[in-house]
Amino acid sequence: MENKEDSIKLDKIMEFGQRLDYYWQYNLIYFVILLVYTSIRGLMSDNFVIFITHDSLIMLFVIIISFSLLNLILKKYRNTSVILGEDFIIFKNRFRQKEYKLEDIEEIRFYKEKIFKTREVLGLFKIKIKNKKRIIRLRATSYWDDKALHKKLVLLKRNLKQY
Q: Looking at the chain, which terminus has fewer C-beta neighbours within 10 angstroms, N or C?
């Protein structure tokens, strides 16, 4: 029986969408903390409505939750993804896509990063494009099926050495 990790081949075109689940998790945590704080402080004060509008900590949590929700909505609307093929990388969103062929890529570097409380090592890929100063940073854990994305980028890096 063939292992899933071994079945990832470079000739197969794969698309990896960006993960947004952590935004929901953080928003939920912020909201629960806000509810607990307001309920504890509200029990201690007589004028609950005046308390909510004048408490700076509550306003801070409301601002954090608002910005986080706005960021989630914008990221969901942009619909960012990475498409990897045999000899190209495409960075795609709702408005445009940018394709880089292996000939355009100068180097792909991998920086290891240990995931909290696991033995897996996934990391950050830095992709240097010829004739560009900026380096493209790609964190595998920010996309769905991060292990397959990691393997595809390692295979692409091996193919890059042949050029």
A: N
Burial 118-142 (b: 16+ CB within 10 A, else e): eeeebbebebebeeeeeebebebbb
Q: Are 152 and 8 in contact (CB under 8 A)?
A: yes
Q: Which one, of 16, 29, 3, lies nearest residue 144 by Cα?
A: 16
| Per-residue model confidence as pLDDT tens digits over 93-119 | 999 999 999 999 999 998 876 666 655
| Non-local CB neighbours of 154 within 8 Å, separated by 6+ positions | 110
Answer whether 163's CB lies under 8 Å from 145's CB: no
Domain ranges of the chain: 21-77, 82-161
Q: Helix 56-78 vs helix 21-44: angle between axes, to the nearest 10 degrees?
A: 160
pLDDT of residue 2: 44
CA distance 82 to 131: 21
Which of these, 113, 161, 114, 109, lies nearest to 135 by C-alpha position? 109
pLDDT bracket for residue 29 (50, 70, 90): very high
Instruction: Please name the residues in contact with 137: beta carbons below 8 A apart, sequence gap of 6 or more.
Output: 124, 125, 126, 127
